[in-house]
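Sample pair:
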Amino acid sequence: MSKIKFLLLFLLLITGTVQANQDDDFLAARDAFRAGDGGKLALFTRRLQDSPLEVYTSYYQLHMKLETVDAAEIQAFLARPDDTPLLNKLRGDWLRSLAKKQQWELFDSEYSHLTGADVELNCDALQSRMRTQKKAVLEEVHNLWFSAVDMPDSCTILFETAINADIISQQDIGARMRLALESGNLTLAKSLAGRLTGNREMSVKSLELAMENPGKYLKNPQLASHGQRAIALFALQRLAKLSPDLAAERWAILEVSFPEKEQQYFLGWLAYEAARKQDVRALKWFKQTGSTPLNEQQSAWRVRAALRVQDWAEVLSGIHAMTDTQRNEAAWRYWRARALQATGRSSDAMRTFLPLSAEANFYGQLAAEELGDTPVLSAIQAVYQPGKQELSTVENLPGIQRALALYRMNMRIDALHEWNWTIRNFSDQQLIAAAEIARRNEMYDRAINTADKTIAIHDFSLRYLAPYRSAMHAHIEENHLDEAWVYGLMRQESRFVTSAKSGVGASGLMQIMPTTARWIAKKLGLKDYRESLLHQLETNLTLGTYYMKSMLSSLDNSPVLASAAYNAGPGRARRWRADTPLEGAIYTETIPFDETRDYVKKVMSNTVYYARQFGDPPRSLKVRIGIINGKAGDNAASLPDDNSPAP
């Protein structure tokens, strides 16, 4: 071995040892903080004084004595030059403490430096301003009032003041009550009920019955007052969610007791719930809402109901009725152009397809195909590659160093916050350099998410990373799967994080639910299978690819249906089909679950990019999603329906 090679090896060993020692010291400091052991924490803070992680241990020390520490000590910490989210976090924590103590002058001096204040702190700031700007603040409080969620105590104090000053009226309380009932927030609704008087008065007992058993409540509802009708409308909405048929049947008896505006209001909800269940009556009910404004969810499903039956004139009408913001979403720009095309206005359609085709998403790809373009090729070829100096400059930023260290210690949430804070103002070139650094450190989720943020300069090989290809190859071959589709799905499931675990218990690269894993293991004859193996790469790939193949073969070999099934269960994927063949893009657009609809779009869009990257023969997105067969003649094999999120 040459002297140079020996020296390099020696330096690597030294670096690795120092790194390991720092990691151990930091984890010990964190444990001391959690245990409230200030002495040990001080010891490890001194040991880490030359480490990028020292700012964390100093934060721990201050946080332990936040209620008693001198303001000057906190301000000295906040004045540090370190660019880390911890400074902002401590400032937020301190501001909460100052607000509780009503130290408003000190609060005001620090609040202006806070980034991303939450609702609680915003209301604290309004309380402070109330001392000198009462009238203006109460107007802001009035706007804040209209929320379907419970608000923090700092806001409640302001609401009480506004109600007592008649800034928030009985009508306003009724409007918030409607928002609470629409979202099913019975706790908020019950608290608001005590504030309603006269014709708007509501019985808490009636609200509870309408929530628990809407069918029973609607057998003999009281409908004389505005408040009583509001409870009945809530019960009807709940019943429509359970069964549009039952709700429509009951509505036919009760509707004469409601004024026209209230009739139209309920019909909007009946139509919405019917549309989500792909009930053909939805469009008729939407049309009966007249001029009553629809919310964004209802507006979207009005258009989806029209798409389902390919009523292109109604698609145009529904999109035209949306707000400007909603109408400019990629989905509605695409479907508006399709509707223009279908109604003979091709030149207008092309003017919409053209700018949309430049966007790297599901609708941008479909729009480009309508123009006969191939945006994938140009997008993948427009690669910027940072040089060694650029990579070194970004990698040596303290925030990146902290993020790398936190990932190394499996403190993924802290690492994510540190990483995102550090890159928040990066240029495209810096983002690509950071994404490459993440890739080299096997932080695949950060690499993908960071590369996704570029605006004008891109590297699609980082946006669509393909790790583990050698490990995956045999499984893809064995199950005769399209490698691009498998990677498109894995990218969406886990961002290639082997330790990923969802809130509902799905695990590993392919995010498999434990019960699904047991079913697959039994099918494959894996006698030694146990749940702890789900995070093991080989086991996870074995189970996941087999499940993908099982669903694909039982669902008409449609990757759209199989992708929907992977996320929401095969039973639901089948039920969402039409009675007759349906364009794949329309099937996807009318999936009732928001999460699954977004998931299928992204999986199929990902697939096109991966296919190009893997050198597969060109196949358009429109061809890949194809036509979804109708329900007639369905003899699908039984598959577990639990590898899916809750609806």
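Residues 6-15, 376-380 have pLDDT under 50 and may be disordered.
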